[in-house]
């Protein structure tokens, strides 16, 4: 009720500011419509922070490859969406209404175009196929099933085909038991040729190959599974051999703490070269997300930097990645990239020679 009142007031304020509105507004400026804002921004109000003024806020990080391409893959940070497939307002491909939480606002293609490069996907056997789904007790139902996973894999295929310098990571929460279920699907989606081979992944905490080398060899798709046996059986990397991750859900939102999630080695285990920071609640909430994706996210990556043995996250995973009070998750990615790539706290200040300007 309270939030509705806020929404009404926010709309009135939008109307009030209408006459001041021009176009190509910078971050933080008052806006009315998305198109009032500069590229890479949209117009929104963060009611969860009791802010009523709609402002241009960021939907895109600075693409690090726009400046520096020759570093090992583990020296970059990527915007990552939690449950990337669970789109607000989606209707199940079974035709059912979806009675499961939703975590994002736009399609995979739109996320890719906004610079999201890490995707967390939950995959299940369902309807004689592999589906993107939530579950109750490990089972996928019509009302928790979003769509066949191959649909979104084809979106990745189109993007990788069109954008020859981009590298994308898919992290699968893997419940697929059907024999070679994932392999068959990645083949069918035309993605096998892009897959970065497990044999080239560093096993003992070494640096990853350089980004430009991955691009040159066209090995531009990293896929990780939560199912350990698939590394030997299908050549799909077992996530916990290569990555540490902090606790997800409410446990990951606690100020000043960055414990590892149960499946992960401790955050400071440097035999794993990649670091992923989760920052989203147990129960996804489109209203509260703008607050969680703002100052507390920046705090969280700094806390996790210390917990991970002074390593900035390679992946920053959030719900509703476009929502914030201004800089949001894109800014957090810029902070991580600034520190990783040139040692300044803001990637905007990094120069092409890798120095801090
Ligand atoms: C689930 O959806 C499928 C179509 O994909 C339909 O054939 C089936 O009857 C549905 N099951 C239930 C229980 O509604």
From TrEMBL:
Keyword Ligase attached: no
Pfam families: PI-PLC_cat
Keywords: Signal
InterPro entries recorded: PI-PLC_domain (IPR051057), PLC-like_Pdiesterase_TIM-brl (IPR017946)
Signal peptide segment: 1-24
Gene3D superfamilies hit by this protein: Phosphatidylinositol (PI) phosphodiesterase
Name by which UniProt lists this protein: PI-PLC X domain-containing protein
Organism of this sequence: Cardamine amara subsp. amara
């Amino acid at each position: 009720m309270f939030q509705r009142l806020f929404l009404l007031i926010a709309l009135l304020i939008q109307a009030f500011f209408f006459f001041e509105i021009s176009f190509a507004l910078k971050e933080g400026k008052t806006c009315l419509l998305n198109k009032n804002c500069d590229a890479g921004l949209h117009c929104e109000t963060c009611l969860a922070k009791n802010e009523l003024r709609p402002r241009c806020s960021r939907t895109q990080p600075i693409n690090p490859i726009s400046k520096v391409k020759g570093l090992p893959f583990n020296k970059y940070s990527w915007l990552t969406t939690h449950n990337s497939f669970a789109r607000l307002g989606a209707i199940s491909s079974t035709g059912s209404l979806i009675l499961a939480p939703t975590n994002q606002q736009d399609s995979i293609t739109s996320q890719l175009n906004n610079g999201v490069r890490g995707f967390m996907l939950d995959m299940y056997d369902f309807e004689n196929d592999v589906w993107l789904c939530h579950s109750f007790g490990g089972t996928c139902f019509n009302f928790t099933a979003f769509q066949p996973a191959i649909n979104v894999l084809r979106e990745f295929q189109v993007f990788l085909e069109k954008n020859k310098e981009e590298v994308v990571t898919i992290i699968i929460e893997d419940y697929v038991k059907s024999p070679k279920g994932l392999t068959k699907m990645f083949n069918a989606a035309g993605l096998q040729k892009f897959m970065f081979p497990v044999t080239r992944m560093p096993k003992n905490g070494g640096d990853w190959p350089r980004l430009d080398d991955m691009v040159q060899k066209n090995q531009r798709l990293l896929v990780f599974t939560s199912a350990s046996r698939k590394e030997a059986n299908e050549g799909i990397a077992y996530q916990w051999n290569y990555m540490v991750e902090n606790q997800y859900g409410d446990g990951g939102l606690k100020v000043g703490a960055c414990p590892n999630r149960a499946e992960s080695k401790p955050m400071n285990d440097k035999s794993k070269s990649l670091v992923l920071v989760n920052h989203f609640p147990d129960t996804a909430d489109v209203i509260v997300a703008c607050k969680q994706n703002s100052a507390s996210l920046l705090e969280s990556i700094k806390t996790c930097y210390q917990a991970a043995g002074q390593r900035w996250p390679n992946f920053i995973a959030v719900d509703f990645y476009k929502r914030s009070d201004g800089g949001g998750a894109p800014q957090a990615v810029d902070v991580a990239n600034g520190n990783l790539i040139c040692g300044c706290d803001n990637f905007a200040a990094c120069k092409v020679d890798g120095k801090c300007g």
